[in-house]
Write a structure and sequence with these properties.
The chain has 22 helices and 24 strands. It has about 725 residues and is an alpha+beta fold. The protein folds into four domains: about 10-145, Jelly Rolls (Sandwich); about 160-175 and about 185-360, no CATH class; about 435-615; about 635-695, 2-Layer Sandwich (Ribosomal Protein S8, Chain: A, domain 1), CATH 3.30.1370. The longest helix is centred in the last third of the chain and has 25 residues, at about 500-525.
């Protein structure tokens, strides 16, 4: 059979024949098939106005021992709602198909003389048990919907709607219970999120494609939302639960299992990888977090926003742990913690809230949307309403504003802050940001704010942005990119020629230079020379940006101060760091751009310093003395130092107990000294054997070579500086 395709036998052991190789007598087949499709439509809860269409996907042939592990079928098109399996008559044993949803499992077997039709929603887990004898032959179809209203939302009795409306009204009027003693939060819930029972993909989540009981429940909630003047949306819900668990063998360690999940955009079905391990029994739910994303309005409009929802704002008919998670992680006993299970679920939800709270609810989900709404209000000249909207943001703005990653978000917010004409509200709106969020494009708006509210107001805001707790530590590359943009930022601040613009540019240069100096003070204490030099070389571009920025901000005094600190004997800035800075400047800039940096004095400092280093005598062949910076005053380090500085001693055998040995190992590794250190495990205590290595001489030869290379380069490139 040259047409078959073999899949990973751990999850799918079967042959596949593509639909292009299958021929069906459509007229004869249709006589049987079409009436069954209409019956399936009714059984799946679809309306009379819709039509179910079956599109052939493939033929699967199972031989003895072959199977298909538990999986879900991906919804390959927007109108796909389910799967149809047609088991053709053949003689075989085993090979039963099990379909599971919401804790219920149904088993179907084929027939030797009859055709068996099995239809189910695409989000149902199903598996084919191993065939024992014979061959199991099936056709698989994708079930698609044609028509505008595919789901049958049965009329909800008025009494039930009345009761539901009353419950939801009381829910929105009831204050949140305190989370802890003296909890100041005493306000009603923002919204109600009801988790649906079926799963949906981004392509499949639509008001007219809800499945079974979901359709009826959502119809009732829509009627209540209309009656109570509530906004209502569908959304995808990513649920994460942490459970304590019982682990019979008390195993230490960590285990991850990717279960019956699937990539909602995948083209092929995915299957569960059953590793044969039994999941530990869940005991107590420790924590839950739920993120809502891909919001769908009743008119079909999609909002690509995401946000978390409080657990006390969520309800459901079926708990998440009654479903199969798409992923789980088990951490066994780890001494003081562990024996927990984390589970992740893909669910969907219908979310509603009083329309009067629409601004606050949507602002929590999308800060950018909130700023755009305030901007629209200001554009219509209604400053008072815009101030009121900003005041409504205040209680939660600090928690949500920095979730918005758009580069233009701060620029938009700066514009709004200026138009509010209120120093307090403007400060509250801008306080959550960090220095690294400020782009050159946004700089003129910061200048405008300093002119409106005063330079001291602006400085206070920048101090908040620059505080250590607000620093952006998430990405070193992000920080590097922002420092590289600092000269351009200064240009935009100073472009208008205003005094406040120059003051702000000078503040940025001074602030960042202070940070560089503090960074070096920490680095010079590091015992590992290679680590220190690598970090110093990483500081070259930021220092060059500050030198250039000081020229743009018309601060020659600060420019001179920076060069003075770098060349001061008290600073002990490595000569390798200075030459790296000069090389970096030479590679990135040419002509006037390089000369404008004013680095000639730095070059003049490096030449005599390198010359003096090269005049130092070369280490004699038998001189094994290793310079030691003793940072520890203990007796052990005293003995170690005497061994290191001894010019004629290359080996030390040192009987030491476990903890003292560990201390010496740590000191030698931390300082990256050319000394091997091994333990001879004979006798008591064991003996620590220290041996000075040839790397002592090799390092000095290599370092002298670098000095010579740098000196030649500085001499050659003198005119460029």
């Amino acid at each position: 059979m040259k047409t078959e395709t073999r899949f990973d036998p751990r999850v799918r052991d079967t042959w596949e024949i593509p639909k292009s190789r299958i021929r069906i007598d459509e007229p004869r087949w249709g006589k049987t098939f079409r009436p069954l499709l209409d019956r399936m439509r009714r059984d799946l809860g679809l309306t009379d106005g819709s039509r179910l269409r079956a599109a052939l996907h493939n033929m699967l042939v199972y031989g003895p021992g072959q199977f298909f592990a538990a999986h879900r079928d991906s919804e390959k098109t927007d109108d796909m709602i389910g799967t149809l399996v047609v088991i053709l008559p053949s003689d075989f044993t085993g090979g039963a198909i099990e379909v599971e949803h919401d804790g219920e499992r149904v088993t179907f077997r084929g027939h030797g003389r009859k055709v068996t039709f099995i239809a189910f929603y695409a989000d149902c887990h199903h598996q084919v048990r191993p065939v024992k004898t014979g061959h199991r032959i099936v056709l698989t179809y994708n079930l698609r919907i044609e028509g505008d209203a595919p789901t049958a939302a049965l009329p909800v009795p008025a009494a039930q709607v009345d009761a539901l409306a009353g419950s939801i009204t009381r829910y929105f009027e009831t204050l949140h219970p305190p989370r802890w003693s003296h909890d100041a939060r005493r306000e009603p819930p923002d919204r109600l999120a009801y988790l649906l029972d079926h799963q949906y993909t981004r392509r499949g989540l639509a008001w007219n494609r809800l499945k079974n009981a979901d359709a009826a429940r959502v119809a009732a909630l829509r009627e209540v939302a209309q009656r109570l003047d509530c906004e209502i949306f569908l959304a995808l819900a990513d649920v994460h639960e942490s459970w304590s668990c019982e682990d019979e063998d008390g195993t230490y360690g960590y285990q991850r299992e990717w279960g019956r999940g699937y990539d909602e955009e995948a083209e092929d079905d995915e299957a569960e990888d059953d590793n044969g391990t039994e999941a530990p029994a869940l005991v107590d739910l420790l924590d839950t977090d739920i993120e809502l994303r891909h919001w769908v309005a009743p008119d079909g409009r999609i909002d690509a926003v995401s946000g978390t929802v409080d657990l006390d704002e969520v309800c459901c008919t079926t708990a998440s742990n009654d479903f199969q998670p798409f992923a789980s992680e088990h951490e066994g006993y780890m001494g003081n913690w562990g024996n927990t299970v984390d589970r992740w679920y893909h669910r969907a939800a219908v979310v509603l809230w009083p329309r009067e709270r629409n601004f606050v609810i949507r602002a929590k989900a999308s800060p950018r949307w909130a700023i755009d709404e305030v901007t629209k209000t200001l554009r219509h000249g209604d400053v008072e309403s815009a101030r009121g909207m900003t005041q409504r943001l205040a209680p939660f703005w600090t928690q949500v504003a920095n979730r918005e990653e758009s580069r233009s978000f701060l620029e938009r917010t700066l514009g709004v802050a200026g138009q509010l004409d209120s120093p307090g509200l403007a400060a509250a709106l801008l306080r959550p940001f960090t220095l690294e969020r400020l782009t050159p494009k946004a700089a003129p708006k910061l200048v405008a704010l300093s002119q409106r509210y005063g330079i001291e107001w602006c400085r206070a805001l920048l101090v908040t942005w620059a505080s250590e707790g607000r620093r952006d530590h998430s990405s070193g590359k992000h920080r590097e990119a922002w420092m590289a943009s600092l000269p351009t930022l200064c240009q935009h601040l100073c472009a208008g020629g205003s005094g406040p613009g120059f003051e702000l540019a000078r503040w940025f240069i001074t602030e960042e230079w202070t940070r560089i100096v503090q960074q070096w003070e920490q680095l010079r204490k590091h015992p590992h020379q290679t680590v220190t030099l690598d970090a110093v070389c990483g500081m070259s571009n930021p220092i060059l940006a500050l030198l250039e920025g000081s020229r743009i901000a018309n601060r020659p005094d600060l420019h001179g101060e920076m060069l003075g600190v770098l060349t001061s004997p008290d600073t002990e800035y490595p000569i390798r760091g200075l030459t790296h800075l000069l090389r970096t400047a030479h590679e990135a800039r040419t002509g006037e751009g390089l000369r404008d940096l004013g680095l000639a004095a730095l070059r003049e400092h490096c030449i005599p310093a390198l010359t003096a280093l090269l005049r130092m005598p070369v280490r004699e062949k038998g001189n094994w003395s290793i310079p030691a910076q003793r940072r520890c005053a203990c007796r052990l380090c005293g003995t170690l130092t005497r061994f290191l500085v001894a010019p004629d001693q290359t080996r030390l055998e040192w009987p030491l107990a476990k903890d003292p040995r560990a201390h010496i190992h740590q000191v030698l590794d931390a300082h990256d000294l050319p000394v091997s250190h091994t333990t001879r495990r004979v006798g008591r205590p064991f003996t620590l054997v220290l041996m000075k290595t040839a790397a002592l001489f090799e390092r000095e030869v290599r370092e002298r070579g670098l000095w010579e290379r740098d000196l030649r380069w500085l001499t050659k490139t003198a005119p460029a500086f």
